[in-house]
Amino acid sequence: MNSIYDLHTHSTASDGTLTPGLLVRRAAAAGVTVLALTDHDTTEGLAEAGAVARELGITLIPGVEISVTWGARTVHIVGLNLEIDNPALQTGLAGLMDFRAWRAEEIGRRLAKHGIEQAYEGAKALSNGVLIGRTHFARFLVHRRLAADTGDVFKRFLTNGKPGYVAGQWATLEAAVGWIRAAGGQAVVAHPARYGLTRTRVQALLGEFREHGGVAIEVVTGSHSRDDAFTFARHAREQHLLASAGSDFHGPENPWLELGRLPPLPEDCTPIWHDWRHLARDFDPALAKPGVFRTLLGG
Ligand code: AMP
Ligand code: MN
Ligand code: MN
Ligand code: MN
Fold first, then answer.
1. By the number of CB atoms within 10 A of the CB, which of 7, 28, 122, 210 ranks highest?
2. Domain interval for residue 281
3. Number of domains in the chain
4. Ligand 3 centre and the CA of 28: distance in Å?
5. pTM for this structure?
């Protein structure tokens, strides 16, 4: 059977709009056979996703997308095949969640000073009540008709230099890759074309990433053009990194980006899943603890 991989998705555990269970159902209906749930800075959605994946007979890869500050930029590092009960990983993520909680209140205060009342409360009401990200603020401002769409909100309110922007320190690249490795996972640079880096800076990022033990970059992803895919396939080859593919699906509201509809990886890349036969086959939330896997070989 041909596998269809989607290794980057979000649920209501972070800033997606489908619950983990509904995300898995939609992925299965779209023909995805190997799905990674990679919520921002949390693994909270994985138990529910794993239970539904098991019911539907698709493979759920336990993942996360960690927010990193690298050279004054925010860079996202995806972790795949995690043992999610790993203390180093969970302590690291807890620190990021603390920062997120403070930042959400601070965004609310700054927008209030700018004349936009109740934004914190509004964003919170659109979230799960725990992880309140910029996307929730963006959706709230669109509801309030203060902007045409979420992209417009980011441009006018939530990016560097704009009234609701709050700078801050996310994890270091070394720490994020370290937590993922501590949890037995594989670290992947998410959507590398999104950072606006020159070729030299991309090489610096990927070089550091590999020194810390990172293994892959997303070559095919929702925000990459076909040219981006070929550019980063070449980077992967030059830096001896594996290639990953994931939609970065956040919900059915973005009709141009669907689960499991990615173009193939360019032929000269080695897919991150090339040796997964011996890895996570069946994430089983019914077993004693999350992060326990049955293997294809071991049964
Ligand atoms: P946060 O991690 O809370 O700072 O929010 C980052 C998230 O905001 C990303 O994962 C995207 O889902 C979303 N995002 C970032 N930039 C934009 C943009 N220009 N338009 C729409 N969504 C964006
Ligand atoms: Mn997001
Ligand atoms: Mn991202
Ligand atoms: Mn993402």
1. 7
2. 5-93+169-297
3. 2
4. 23
5. 0.93
